[in-house]
Amino acid sequence: MEKDIPSLTFLQKVFKINPDLTNVLNAIHISCKVIQRQISKAGIVGLHGIIESSNGLEQNASGDIQKKLDVISNEVMIDNLIHSHSCSILLSEENEDEIIVPDEFKGKFIVAFDPLDGSSNIDCNVCVGTIFAIYEQNDIEWNNCIDGDKIICAGYCLYGPATELVITFQKGSGVMKFTLDHSIGEFVFTGNIQIPIVGKKIYSVNESNCENWNQNIQDYISLFKIKDTKYTQRYIGSMVADVHRTLLYGGMFMYPADSKNKDGKLRIFYECFPMARITEEAGGLAITTRRSPYRILDIKPKKIHEKTPILLGSKDEVEKFIA
Ligand code: AFP
User: Fold this and answer.
1) Structure letter (DSSP) for residue 150
2) Mutation pick for ligand 1 pocket among 236, 239, 240, 275 (CB with most ligand atoms within 8 Å)
3) When you count CB atoms within 10 A of the terminal residue's CB, does the N or C end of the chain come out lower?
4) Is the pLDDT of residue 51 over 80?
């Protein structure tokens, strides 16, 4: 049965919480709508596939092969954020260096984003997402303003069977979920997210790397495979989708280091920081999986595309690793 009470739209809700951020979040949510449209028609208009140039396959700043939709999504985000007149610096997964917003468009916010995370899943129509974190520039050096605990807003948009925008603001603001209602072309508020205390017993990791893991990671994962503990494994290979499931159902998601990838695979500024902030706000934990684990948000990254091993999810599942 359809609800007849209209829900608050994304911008109405955002404006109430932090009017200062309205322009930036307007730019982000419009970008998400555009990206969603591009993804949904990609198979029809020939937007699947990778970018090939005379030099071979194009790679982004992190060495990933670039897909056509990676490039389009990045352009959409950059264009909308610059024209929001609210940003000073943009850090994108797709760009080697920081993007300095021209003076005539300059504002005070720094936005770090991955325009299309999980894009290797796109040609087979599996969930992908956009991830972002916003900071205020209150120092001339932008990297002095970027710190896990200085995030003023973090969120992601999941392009799946439904398009959902999940967002959190300052500590204590909770994690809100908005769903794109195609009949009105708006994201409407569809509830708060809190990781269930007694969640589903799910572990999520790319186990094909297990031979290359350290012993502590192997021991941890083996806990989920003990006979009769009733755990099941779910792994999509799109961080946004795997984290979204973890927030809603409980369990854990990890991308640990291995002998080939000493710092894991996931990037701090635009993947781990925003997801860690959201997870903590939803009542969970997000830690590195180094020998002495500590909060993801306590990491002090020095380079834009720096990576970290990560484990996040329900408190009890993450605490098993710490123990
Ligand atoms: P792509 O954007 O290249 O698809 O990478 C996705 C991702 O960065 C992240 O979303 C996944 O959690 C992770 O990589 C999956 O990596 P593996 O394929 O090594 O499991």
Assistant:
1) G
2) 239
3) N
4) no
Report the pLDDT value the prediction gives residue 227, as an integer from 0 to 100: 86
- pLDDT tens column, 200-231: 899 999 999 999 999 999 999 999 999 888 89
| φ, ψ for residue 229, nearest 5 deg | -85, -10
pLDDT at 54 over 90: no
Annotated catalytic, 64? yes
Pocket (CB within 6 angstroms of ligand 1)? 64, 117-121, 206, 237-239, 242, 255, 265-266
Contact 60, 50 (CB under 8 A): no
> Which two tokens mark 78?
């950059």
116 in catalytic set: yes
* DSSP reduced 3-state for 15: helix
Digit-coded pLDDT (tens) for 81-103 = 999 999 999 999 999 999 999 99
Pairing relationship of beta strands 202-204 and 232-233 according to DSSP bridges: parallel
45, 76, 241, 236: which is closest to 161 by C-alpha?
241
Name the closest-CA residue to atom 7, ligand 1.
Answer: 118
pLDDT over 90 at 11, yes or no: no
Most ligand 1 atoms within 8 A of CB, residue of 74, 113, 238 to mutate? 238
Collect all residues with Cβ–Cβ distance below 8 Å to 156 and sequence separation of at least 6: 117, 129, 130, 131, 132, 165, 166, 240, 243, 244, 274, 275, 278
Q: If you measure from the C-alpha of residue 239 to the centroid of ligand 1, how many angstroms do you get, rounded to a whole number?
A: 7
- Element housing 320 (H / E): helix 315-322
Please spell the DSSP secondary structure of 151-203, one letter per residue.
-SEEEEEEESSSEEEEEE-STTS-EEEEEEETTTTEEEEEEEE---SS---EE
Instruction: Please tell me whether the overall predicted TM-score, pTM, comes out greater than 0.85 for this model.
Output: yes
Structural contact between residues 166 and 196, judged by C-beta atoms closer than 8 angstroms: no
